[in-house]
Amino acid sequence: MLSRYAVPVFLLLAIAIGCKFSSNDKESYAYIGGEIVNPKNTSVAIYDADGELLDSIMLDNNNRFNYKIPEVQAGLYTIAHGGEYQMLIVEPNDSIMFRLNTYDFDESLVFTGEGAKKNNYLIKTYLYIDDEAKKLVKNAKMEPEEFDAFVENRRQKQLNEFYKFLENNNESDFFKTIIESYINYSALADKEIYPFAYFGNNKLIHVKDLPESFYSYRDTINYNAAHLSSFFAYNRFLFSHIDNLALNAYYKSNAYHSKFNRHSMDYNKSKLDLIDSIIENEIIKNRLLKYKARDYISHNHTQAEAAEMLDYYLQKSTNQKDKEYMMELVSNLELLRQGNPLPDLALVNYDQTEHNLNSIITKPTIIYFWSSHSKSQYRNSHYKVKQLKEKFPDMDFISIYINDNDDKYWKDVIRNYNFPTQKEYKFKNSKKALKTLAVNYLNKAIIVDENSNILHPNANIFHSKFDKTLEELTQKSISLTK
User: Fold this and answer.
1) Burial call 21-56: b when 16+ CB within 10 Å, e when fewer
2) Tell me: the pLDDT tens digits for 404-425?
3) How confident is the model at residue 478 (pLDDT cuts 50, 70, 90)?
4) Where are the domains of the chain?
5) What is the spatial distance between Cα 139 and Cα 155, in angstroms, rounded to a whole number?
6) Does the pTM exceed 0.90?
7) Regarding the domain with residue range 346-481, which homologous superfamily does it belong to in the CATH classification?
8) pLDDT band at 106 (very low <50, low <70, confident <90, very high)
């Protein structure tokens, strides 16, 4: 019965992404409201379809809020609370109410009211795709033909389930486009990521040997889908797609069977070239340019290399705010070079006592970071540090919570997971501190000696070679002090 919906992915993309959605009713509006269980702070922020802040609404005494969006246009809006974000499909005359528990943000989110069914379906789709994405490394062990068939079958199954839902629910073309795009782009992103997982760095040259039909959809891609510019599935696809396309340039200037180096200057410049040449939409282009340049600059390159990439990026971006951010990032990274003193920042410990960061460092120390919106990361990081403490008893470990939330929520997480409270801190001014220490990734760690001099400004405690790196750095530090 559902066979009539078995439409090729490239045709769906051409139809869905080519559409534009708007409302001619200038009096149209929508309501968004809800209840936050275990709130992290006292407000909820709402962003429009272009990512611009509409308003920040205070929660009432029952942790509820209600907000009217005047002259609403159909789009993907965002609600934000305590460092966590959730996208909503909002259309004229919607009255969307939700309830969520911050301890289980995505899984607890349930919508009611006009516009609820489509958003509940969006959440259902997101959770399924997110779960499948976590299996990608395992699934990527399949041979190319097998993986291609697996991804396509999974995609078609999701589409068939969606079309069955539509048979019993009268929803808008905009909603249909969003869900189709989510399903299709998530599948295509897996295919773009596949060669990196399957071949690995030593054999990535063989991406050229993939079946001819593996990337047959590429000729139909619309790189300028404005209504998807802030959509995770679309951006995940574009990010991995650009990485994949840039491989062609990489192997033009590197030996045929050389080990792939994702941090090479030429490879990363070619990514910026591709973004600049194939994307016209300013929002999409500038976002990709910013994050691809930041990925390179944030790695452990020399200052000259960071400056070279910054100059290359500045020639292409047209977003002045992004340019200022990147220039500040490079300046801050210069202060974080090996051998430099660690910037001194104000911290607050579990007992609400203020300290300066450098004042609590008395021996070689690893400083690591965590956020409440990444449960797996903060559980894994504390577990990993517990292991490292046993292996490196002469090292100290400082845990810093990076969210700017109420202290109650921070302490609740520590209590609920039985984290040791002695070395748990949060920044007094998170926004300033994160910029100063260039904390763009949660897995970043900073290693310093007993005098607060930087040994490594951008380590990763989960890296397979972290233990060896730590041993080498501490031995080097010891020899320098003798």
Assistant:
1) beeeeeebebbbbbbbeebbbebbebbbbeeeebee
2) 877 877 888 898 888 989 999 9
3) low
4) 19-121, 142-335, 346-481
5) 14
6) no
7) Glutaredoxin (3.40.30.10)
8) low
Taking the CB of residue 90, how many other CB atoms lie within 10 A of it? 25
Half-sphere exposure of 48 (CA within 13 A, CB side): 14
* Residue 451 in this model has a pLDDT that exceeds 90: yes
pLDDT tens figures, 6-45: 444 444 444 343 444 444 444 689 999 999 988 888 899 9
Give the pLDDT band of residue 259 (cuts 50, 70, 90): confident
In this structure, the chain runs to a length of: 482
Pairwise CA distance, residues 95 & 222, whole Å: 32
Two tokens at 31? Answer: 């309501």
Retrieve residue 298's tokens.
Answer: 């944030």
Give the end-to-end CA distance of the chain in Å, rounded to a whole number: 79
* Angle in degrees, 0-180, between the axes of helices 9-17 and 144-167, rounded to the nearest 10: 50
What DSSP line would sit under 260-297, residue for residue?
P-TT-HHHHHHHHHHHHHH---HHHHHHHHHHHHHHHH
CATH number of 19-121: 2.60.40
**Could you tell me how far CA 411 lies from the centroid of its own chain?**
25
- C-alpha–C-alpha distance, residues 213 and 9, integer Å: 12
Backbone CA torsion sign across 389, 391, 392, 394: positive
